[in-house]
Design a protein that fits this description.
Blueprint: E1 23-27, H1 31-44, E2 47-51, H2 54-63, E3 68-72, E4 74-75, E5 78-79, H3 80-88, E6 96-101, H4 106-113, E7 117-120, H5 126-134, H6 158-172, H7 178-195, H8 198-213, H9 218-234
Parallel strand pairs: 1-2, 1-3, 3-6, 6-7
Antiparallel strand pairs: 4-5
Length: about 240
């Protein structure tokens, strides 16, 4: 059941909280990106629930039907595009289905799978976040009149970046597996890009390039591993 249908009138959208009454399921493996989503939802009036993989998302969706689902395309147990394709044909369909990623090609993939729209990472603009949802939300669920929005960029908790580095350190233990290595490079490049960690982003992208070109990956993997361990050990702040 859609949580929105259970709400009393005083929880309808307003000019300052245009997403009030909506529950947003964010399918996202990065704690840093998810904390950005949490802050965006907080400023917009929406409630947020999180799943960190496809399996967890499907478990959530067996219990309730959110108003909005935002799905990262690169997840540890598969492609978010597969879940987008599933949800785009489910009846009743969720009102808003968005893809998200930091990869330049990902928008085309998400839309082809059936997404209503796309959010490119890093996501920091409250206005852009709200517009992406409101532009495809049924008209009866949109606030009437002008919106009053403070568009100061959201700044996720640096502790969430440390959590991502700890996750990456765990994944590195199985990085010899080609599928794991592909996931790791995508995850680290995206998280580092969102956090403004240019050194780690470049190292992850170089490793991805070496893998794609069939070159030895050990030097790049050692470099990435050292950078991740430095951030975990030093509790590096952003």
């Amino acid at each position: 059941m859609d949580d929105y249908d259970q709400l009393s009138p005083h929880l309808r959208p307003t000019a300052t909280r245009p997403l009030l009454g909506l529950t947003i399921l964010v399918v996202e493996d990065s704690r840093y990106s998810c904390d950005a989503m949490r802050l965006l939802c907080l400023r917009s009036g929406a409630r947020i629930r999180r799943a960190d993989c496809l399996k967890s998302a499907r478990r959530h969706l067996q219990v309730y039907r959110p108003s909005v689902v935002i799905i990262d395309l690169g997840l540890p147990d598969g492609s978010g595009a597969d879940l987008i394709a599933e949800l785009s044909t489910t009846c009743p369909r969720v009102d808003v289905l968005l893809g998200t990623s930091g990869d330049t090609f990902a928008e085309e993939v998400a839309l082809a799978a059936g997404a209503d729209g796309f959010l490119g990472k890093p996501i920091s603009s409250v206005v852009a976040f709200q517009n992406a949802i409101l532009s495809v939300l049924p008209s009866e669920r949109r606030p009437t009149g002008p919106r009053l929005v403070c568009d100061d960029p959201v700044v996720p908790d640096p502790l969430s970046y440390r959590d991502d580095m700890a996750h990456a350190a765990d994944v590195l233990g199985d990085a010899r597996n080609p599928q794991t290595l592909a996931y790791l490079t995508q995850f680290l490049a995206g998280v580092a890009r969102s956090a403004g960690d240019g050194v780690l982003q470049q190292a992850a992208e170089d490793l991805a390039d070496a893998r794609a070109a069939g070159r030895p990956v050990k030097p790049g993997l050692d470099r990435v591993s050292a950078l991740v361990q430095d951030r975990v050990a030093d509790r590096m702040a952003i």
